[in-house]
Specification:
Elements: E1 9-15, H1 21-38, E2 43-49, E3 55-56, E4 62-63, E5 67-68, H2 69-75, E6 84-88, H3 99-110, E7 114-118, H4 122-127, E8 135-137, H5 143-149, E9 154-156, E10 160-163, E11 166-169, H6 174-187, H7 189-199, H8 215-219, H9 224-234, H10 243-250, H11 254-264, H12 269-287, H13 292-298, H14 304-315, H15 319-338
Parallel strand pairs: 1-2, 1-6, 2-5, 6-7, 7-11, 8-9
Antiparallel strand pairs: 3-4, 10-11
Helix pairs in contact: 1-6, 1-7, 5-12, 6-7
């Protein structure tokens, strides 16, 4: 019986300005440890940027790269052809547009090479048209804006998704889980366990594990009825339900729900429902270019004026001011990076 040849994968990490270090380093370190456990270089990687110049992460740390997009397009047909390309991004991804990058990613995918993303990189894949009708994962904070911008994509708040030859993950330590999944495909569970031991990771998480802390931990409350009602509210933001409908769903009276929320949350259920709708609106304002009136409709407000009134009451600024301040912050950050 012939000896099985070692797997040799080459990955290209494409770094978008302001990419997040944690998911990038978690992915690279997982592959490095796998190589160490195997005793040879089963995984190789190189870093790429649009022009071949260094890229600043969101932490301000500049990372040198090995190649440009032009170089990688040439590599598609040669001996340096990669097995996978991963887009690494982070904050302000909504502002990123590059047709050359989109064309390169499409060409890469059409040549049968796996394409994926870390953190918010699904934005770039969606802009390239690669995620239409596909499942993908993205960081929970970016999910509302992404879903509105790309309605043709099936986006989930999962840790990671693998759909055909497309790999997407939510960022943070979820990139570790996605790389462990890849290593498991190549070498099996034994190597995965050895890598986990080196990383002091106690388990391999399921791709569909939740990104955020469970409501119980996030809100610090234990009442199961209140928790189920809040989850019901969070799943019905675009078309808010009446308290009567919520009461029917929870099998409680309106008075019981009012009393429970006053006791557990310190405010009425209507007020809490309003606050979580406004929180989603805030994410849409700073992460998308949707007109304010469309943000209002997406979050269940009957008019832009009512939305603005409620928004100002909670955040002490109008939706327009929120967006203007966000643009100013982005411009200031870019000026500092360029200095």
């Amino acid at each position: 019986m012939s000896k099985q040849l070692p797997v040799k994968r080459t990955l290209v990490f494409f770094l978008v300005p302001n990419f997040t270090l944690l998911p990038f380093t978690a992915a690279v370190e997982t592959l490095r440890i796998a190589n160490r456990m195997l005793g040879y270089e089963a995984y190789a990687w190189r870093l790429c940027s649009t022009d071949g110049e260094k890229v600043h992460s969101s932490a301000g740390i500049a990372v040198e790269v090995n190649s440009s997009v032009a170089d990688e397009r040439k590599n598609l047909g040669g001996e340096n052809r990669p097995n996978m390309v991963l887009v690494c991004s982070g904050i302000e991804i909504e502002q990123y547009q590059n047709k050359t990058v989109n064309a390169w990613l499409r060409e890469t995918y059409n040549r049968g090479i796996a394409v994926g993303s870390l953190c918010t990189g699904a934005h770039v894949l969606a802009q390239a048209g690669l995620l239409n009708g596909k499942r993908c994962a993205i960081h929970w904070e970016n999910l509302p804006g992404f879903a509105e911008a790309f309605p043709q994509v099936d986006v989930y708040a999962d840790l990671y998704e693998v759909d055909s030859n497309l790999y997407t993950c939510a960022g943070g330590t979820a990139s570790l889980d996605m790389m462990l999944n890849l290593i498991g495909q190549d070498f099996g569970e034994n190597l995965v366990n050895r890598v986990c031991e080196q990383q002091l990771t106690d388990r391999v998480r399921n791709p569909h594990d939740r990104q955020r802390l469970p409501l119980r931990a996030r809100l610090g409350i234990q009442n199961t009825k209140v928790l189920s009602i809040i989850e019901f509210m969070e799943n019905n933001l675009a078309e808010p339900l009446s308290l009567v409908e919520i009461a029917d769903e929870a099998d409680l009276s309106r008075r019981q729900i009012e009393r429970l929320f006053r006791q557990e949350m310190g405010r009425s259920p209507a007020r809490y429902y309003l606050e979580i709708r406004l929180d989603r609106a805030r994410h849409l304002l700073v992460q998308s270019s949707m007109p304010v009136v469309e943000v209002a409709v997406a979050c269940g407000f009957v008019s832009a004026s009512h939305f603005s009134k409620c928004y100002r009451e909670v955040y002490n600024r109008s939706p327009q001011q929120e967006r203007a301040e966000r643009k100013l912050t982005i411009a200031s950050a870019r000026a500092v990076m360029a200095a």
